[in-house]
Amino acid sequence: MIPWKLLDTAQTPGNxxxxxxxxxxxxxSIKAGNYELMNSRVYGTExxxxxxxxxxxANHPRARVLIGGLxxxxxxxxxLDELGAKAQxxxxxxxxxxxxxxxxxxxxxxxxxxxDSRVAVHEADVAQMIKTATGDYNAILLxxxxxxxxxxxxxxxxxYSPNGLSTAFAALRPKGVLAVWSxxxxxxxxxxxxxxxxxxxxxGLRARGRGKGGAHxxxxxxxxx
Length: 225
Known about the structure:
The protein is α/β, with parallel strands linked by helices. It has a single domain, classed as Rossmann fold (3-Layer(aba) Sandwich), CATH 3.40.50. 24% of the residues lie in helices and 33% in strands. It is built from six helices and eleven strands. It has helices spanning 44-55, 74-82, 96-103, 126-131, 162-171, 187-195, and strands at residues 5-11, 18-24, 27-32, 35-39, 64-68, 88-92, 119-122, 137-142, 172-182, 198-206, 216-224. The protein is globular and about 50 Å long.
């Protein structure tokens, strides 16, 4: 078996959690501690996050979308594939090295989405971008953790709190979509979404990419009604 090769490391701001980028043949993996955050063979749910959310706003030719968490670029690519030529996609990624990896060794995995003229990358906290927005976005997509709790950065808990969800509601335009990736169902989170005024759809998915099958995951699609 071909061994994994460590390509680079990065530190998350605040808690100093180490991210490690590995390669094995044509496969890439990003890990935090003993936990694999993402793998280039199983990206079906990252695709689905962008596709499902942006299909709901496809009738907006100048849609504005905020994506929290760059990952390996698959969510950005799937969002772009659903949006029109005049759409704008802001990507918030807190770790500069992840941006650099996506402009370098990872760029071709999702077809170089950061080279698209519709994309603007912000090396910033997505929570701060949400806090400073008022009716700015047609969709906000969050894939910054293992679901509605802060795994890589404890401060991310605010995003899924009642206050955070109300702030996201205000940052969306009417009929705007808040889409959140989760490692599984979170009934308490769905209740918080509804209390914040959203109509909520819970979509169960498998992590299919180039490989088959994979674990079960959940995408929450919350519409500002």
